[in-house]
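I can't quite decide. Please look over this sequence plus structure tokens:

:::
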Amino acid sequence: MSAVCQVLGTKPGFGHSISHSHVRTKRRFDPNIQKKRYWVPSLGRHVTLRVSARGIKTIDRLGIEVVVSRIQARGEKV
């Protein structure tokens, strides 16, 4: 399961964990991905999206209709 937001396209970031002795080891910063189910009136059905917490706020601000139309414009299946 990939950690990519369908709304914003947020992907994992990479960096280092730094210990007390300052030894650096590789680590991965994953976005907070969640499965959310939304009712889309224009499609007349529910749509399940894999969105980050910030993506959920974007849907709340813009509306599900606008977000779904943008996803479909990119050619991604909803």
In short: Residues 13-74 form a domain with the Ribosomal Protein L24e; Chain: T; fold (CATH 2.30.170.40).
